[in-house]
Amino acid sequence: MSLRRIIATLASAVSAIGLAALLPLAPPAYAASCAAPYAASAVYTGGMTASYGGHNWSAKWWTQGEAPSTGGSGVWADQGDCGGSTPPTNPGGFVVSEAQFNQMFPNRNSFYTYAGLTAALSAYPGFANTGSDTGKKQEAAAFLANVSHETGGLVHIVEQNTANYPHYCDTTQPYGCPAGQAAYYGRGPIQLSWNFNYKAAGDALGIDLLHNPNLVQTDAAVAWKTGLWYWNTQNGPGTMTAHNAMVNSAGFGQTIRSINGSLECDGKNPAQVQSRINSYQSFTSILGVPTGSNLSC
Predict the structure, then answer these.
(1) Can you tell me whether residue 18 is helix, strand or coil?
(2) Taking the model in full, what pTM does it have?
(3) Per residue in 274-283, pLDDT tens?
(4) Residue 297 located in a structural domain
(5) What is the CATH number for 51?
(6) Are both 65 and 118 inside the same structural domain?
(7) Beta strands in the chain (DSSP E)
(8) Per the database entry, which stretches of residues form a coiled coil (predicted)?
(9) Mean pLDDT of 198-204
């Protein structure tokens, strides 16, 4: 090869390398936004969409009660992964992404931020972070399902029945009710109520909630922390914490018992129990994990 040809060949190669270095890289492709979650009770007709198991699905004809899959009757067409047109956000490795959180709570009050929830996780690092990946997601789904029931889908920040407000002051407690007799009504994702619960939660979290109960309705991170405090530390009417119920595979039903079992379990209010179960089934579907057994109480 002549010297001129060698020089020309090297120049061509350098030019190509330089061009490649200057060309912008194609942006990464992210999954499409998720459609509304699949609901077993809903009727779907041809062309209607639903999300299930991290995918969007399109119905080919009328269907009801058949969960989306590539098998079955063949009514569902898989439209691919979903989860948003931006990178999934999972601060601290939380098993629920921001896109999934938004899918679970499409009508939530702006007070209940995803950032507030993830900021609260450090208070109880074992929450949704113990055991297998499936177990972690099941616990997150169980917590959020009960929260959804307590707040009407993260819509209500405070208890709606104001007539109950004066009833949550236990005057037998030595510290009394310094914020006022009617100051300890239900607030936040788990609807924390009673002066002794505000005192206990505040002591555990290092926040003076006995004197400043309004923090639970004005600071999203504090609100989420009170929900996690109850979930991780309180048996309530049950025999175990809701956290232990999920970690030790006692089942979702035991989380209901720990939160409101004296009013709902053992046949007292089956409609309320079923409402919680429905949310749990929906949320585990969004997270792509099975529900496990013992859903009721």
Answers:
(1) helix
(2) 0.70
(3) 999 999 999 9
(4) no
(5) 2.10.10.20
(6) no
(7) 43-44, 49-52, 55-59, 63-64, 76-81
(8) none
(9) 95
